[in-house]
Amino acid sequence: MYSSELIKGTLKTIVLKLLSENDKMYGYEITQKVKELTGGKIQLTEGALYPTLHAMEANGILTTHTVNVGNRIRKYYSVTKTGKQVAKEKVNEFEDFMHTMMFLLDLKPKMG
Amino acid sequence: MYSSELIKGTLKTIVLKLLSENDKMYGYEITQKVKELTGGKIQLTEGALYPTLHAMEANGILTTHTVNVGNRIRKYYSVTKTGKQVAKEKVNEFEDFMHTMMFLLDLKPKMG
DNA sequence: AATAATACATAAGAATATTATGTATATAAA
DNA sequence: TTTATATACATAATATTCTTATGTATTATT
Questions:
Q1: How far apart are CA A75 and CA B11, in angstroms?
Q2: What is the pLDDT of residues B18-44, one digit of tens each?
Q3: Which residue among B5, B105, B108 sits closest to A9, beta carbon to beta carbon?
Q4: Which residues contact A60 (CB under 8 A, 6 or more apart)?
Q5: DSSP B80
Q6: Which pLDDT score is estimated for A107?
Q7: Which of A8, A68, B2, B16 is the most exposed place for a label (fewest CB within 10 A)?
Q8: Which residues lie closer than 8 Å to A2 by C-beta, 6 or more apart?
Q9: pLDDT-based confidence at B72, cuts 50/70/90?
């Protein structure tokens, strides 16, 4: 598990990337998939995930449809056309940022 | 310039890395160095930087000495022995995190 | 019967950053 | 010469984002 501050700001990027590759996923499924894919190193909390999903739906980035599975509710999220664009931009921005950070963190001292 | 949420949580890592490679730097110098090294893509704000520096000093990660340059004050920060260890850990953790994120973001869809 | 897993949601509080404001000197431009 | 920009610190109000806690409810496991 990474320190919480490290992961801040990456939640939307992670969720949008996953959703843009799997045409529908529900909240709990997203948490499990991320946990599985990262070997438990990233565990999304519900308190962070659900409000973010709601916000992205309100912003037209995601759409939902609710399904009853037995007696339980399952709310599937999908990226809209706009959402796909946002997902691409987010991922591109993050990759750019990672390169910048790699440069910064590998930086040799510049004396004087 | 990156979206602000993207940079959240990386401030300490950036500052500690820079300070662990340059045995002393002052706040304004740090903002300028980061701006220069990232081609303006990361611009630390004073409102974020100074409180963080103060906190790290209070935690024994940094030490300071103040110098008068002309009639202006300049407060130099240096990493302590503890701080060097923390810097290494922060950078290592970030590199690990970046690899995890690269994997996640390059992820191919797993249908079914 | 009790616990863990599935599945949603929200509220209180903590942490971190943005934006705005303040002080003050030094330099460059109009 | 006065105005704007750069240097250099600091803090307060606000906003954002996350953690932790709480709540409801079903299903599966021990």
A1: 36
A2: 999 999 999 999 999 999 999 999 999
A3: B5
A4: A80, A82, A83
A5: -
A6: 58
A7: A68
A8: A41, A42, B93, B96, B97, B100
A9: confident
Q: Which secondary structure element, helix H or strand E, spans residue A53, and what is its range?
A: helix A46-58
Q: How far: A109 CA to C17 C1' (Å)?
A: 28
Cβ pair A78, A18 in contact under 8 A: no
Q: pLDDT tens digits, residue range A80-89? A: 999 999 999 9
Could you tell me how many residues make up chain A?
A: 112
User: Tokens 């449809």 — which residue?
Assistant: A65
Q: Which pTM value belongs to this model?
A: 0.91
Nearest residue to nucleotide D10, by CA–C1' distance, is B50
Measured between alpha carbons, how far is A6 from B56 in angstroms, rounded to an integer? 17
Question: Which residue has the least CA–C1' distance to nucleotide D16?
Answer: B5
- Segment (H or E) for B75: strand B72-79
B73-102 residues touching A, CB cutoff 8 A: 91, 93-98, 100-102
